[in-house]
C-alpha cells in the first residue's frame, strides 16, 4: 500500500485524518503545527502525539518532504534547485500519468535584506508563450499542493524568505486550486 503525503493537506484535512485513525480531532491541529510551523521531516519528530498515534500515522502516511536532487550556486548568491516529482498529476492528487520521473526548478534569489523564491506550479506549460522556454517543452501536468509546498519546505533558506513568486515552470492561474494552498 502506497503511503500518502501529509505535506499539502490543510489543517481541516489533517483533523479528518486524525479522526479516521481514531485519534482525537485536535491531533490534526497538532500535526498541522508540526508540518507548517516546525517543518518536521518525519512523523517521529511529532513528540506531542503519543507513540501509539505516531506509529498508527506512520502505517498510512509520510511527511512527504523530499530534498532537491541537484543544487547549483551562482557567484551572486542565486541558488537553483532541481526537484524530482513522481510522474504527472491529473485532477486527483495521487493520480500519476506519463513518465515516471520529471523535474521542476526552484530558484532562490537573495538581494540585500530580502530573499525571493521562484517556485514552479506545473511541469511544462499549456500557454506556449513565444518568449518562454518552459512553454516549448509542452504541458506535462499539474503539481500537487505537496509538490508546490515541498519547494519551500525543503530549502535550508526558507526562514530567510521575504517573497515567494510563481515564476518557475507553469501558469499559476491554470493550477489555481493547488497554488492557493
Describe the structure using short key phrases:
alpha+beta, single chain, 181 residues, two-stranded parallel ribbon, TIM Barrel, 6 helices, DNA polymerase, domain 1
Describe the structure.
The protein is of the alpha+beta class and 181 residues long. The protein has 2 domains: 4-62, DNA polymerase, domain 1, CATH 1.10.150.530; 70-179, Aldolase class I (TIM Barrel, Alpha-Beta Barrel). 27% of the residues lie in helices and 24% in strands. It contains 6 helices and 11 strands. The chain has a 5-stranded mixed sheet with strand order 3-4-7-8-11, covered by helices on one side. The chain has a two-stranded parallel ribbon with strand order 1-2. Strands 5-6 form a two-stranded antiparallel sheet. Helix 1 (11-20) crosses helix 2 (26-36).
Task: Describe the secondary-structure layout.
Elements: E1 4-5, H1 11-20, H2 26-36, H3 51-60, E2 61-62, E3 70-73, E4 79-85, E5 88-89, E6 96-97, E7 102-111, E8 114-118, E9 122-124, H4 133-136, E10 139-142, H5 145-153, E11 163-165, H6 176-179
Helix pairs in contact: 1-2
Task: Please write the string of helix (H) and strand (E) elements.
Answer: EHHHEEEEEEEEHEHEH
Gross morphology is globular
Walk across the major sheet and give the strand order. Answer: 3-4-7-8-11
What portion of the residues fall into strands of 2 or more residues?
A: 15-25%
- Assign a percent range to the helix content: 25-40%
Amino acid at each position: 500500500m502506497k503511503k500518502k503525503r501529509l505535506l499539502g493537506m490543510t489543517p481541516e484535512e489533517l483533523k479528518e485524518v486524525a479522526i479516521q485513525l481514531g485519534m482525537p480531532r485536535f491531533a490534526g491541529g497538532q500535526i498541522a503545527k508540526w508540518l507548517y510551523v516546525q517543518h518536521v521531516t518525519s512523523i517521529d519528530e511529532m513528540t506531542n502525539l503519543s507513540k501509539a498515534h505516531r506509529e498508527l500515522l506512520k502505517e498510512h502516511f509520510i511527511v512527504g518532504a523530499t530534498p532537491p536532487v541537484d543544487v547549483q550556486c551562482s557567484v551572486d548568491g542565486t541558488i537553483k534547485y532541481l526537484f524530482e516529482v513522481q510522474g504527472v498529476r491529473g485532477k486527483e492528487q495521487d493520480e500519476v500519468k506519463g513518465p515516471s520521473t520529471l523535474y521542476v526548478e526552484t530558484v532562490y534569489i537573495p538581494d540585500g535584506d530580502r530573499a525571493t523564491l521562484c517556485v514552479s506550479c506545473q511541469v511544462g506549460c499549456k500557454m506556449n508563450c513565444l518568449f518562454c522556454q518552459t512553454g516549448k517543452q509542452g504541458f506535462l501536468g499539474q503539481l500537487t499542493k505537496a509538490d508546490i509546498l515541498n519547494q519551500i519546505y525543503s530549502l535550508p533558506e526558507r526562514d530567510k524568505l521575504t517573497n515567494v513568486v510563481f515564476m518557475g515552470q507553469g501558469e499559476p492561474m491554470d493550477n489555481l486550486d493547488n497554488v492557493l494552498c
